Amino acid sequence: MTKHDSAWDGILDADETILWQGRPDPKFMFKPTMIFTTLFGMAFAGFALFWMVMAGSAGGYFWMFGLIHFAVGVGIIAGSILYPSYKRRRTWYTLTNRRAFIATVLPLLGKRLKSYPITEDTQIEFQDNAIPSVMFATETKRGKNSTYTVPIGFEHIPDARQVMTLLRSVQKDQK
C-alpha cells in the first residue's frame, strides 16, 4: 500500500505511507500467567462462598454481603481467561515507512492509538510461537513494590515473518 485513506489524514506525515496492516489472532491462547491469576480468583471466590454458607446457616440476610466478594472472585477468573482474547478482537496494527501503530477500542478505555517510531536503534525481536509475534518496543510499568518492563509489538500475527522483513527494511531506510 502506498496511499492511505482519509481516516489516516492528520495522523500520518505527508511522506509517510502504510506498508502493512493486520490484526492479532483472536483465539484463546493459554499463557502461564493465567494459572496464578485463575487460582487467586478461585481462592477468593471459594472463600467468599464458604463465608456465605456459614453466614447463611446463622439465618437472616447477612450472607448477602459475601456476594460482592464472590462476584469479584468470579470476575478475576473470567478476566484472566477471557480478557486477552477479547482485547485482541478489538486491536488493529499498522506499519508505515516510519512508525508502528497499535489501535485499540475497549469499553471504558475508549479508542486509543499509540505510535512507536522505528529507528535504526530499534530492537526488533521475533517470537516464534504457535502464532508468532514481532516485538519492537518496551513499556515500563509500575507494580506495587517495583517496576517491570513489558514488550510491545504486533502480537499473534500469522504473517509475522513478512512483517519482520518489513520492519528491517524500515530500519535500513532510516539510516
From TrEMBL:
TM regions (residue ranges): 33-54, 60-83
Superkingdom assignment: Bacteria
Keywords: Membrane, Transmembrane, Transmembrane helix
Official protein name in the record: Aspartate carbamoyltransferase catalytic subunit
Organism encoding this protein: Yoonia tamlensis
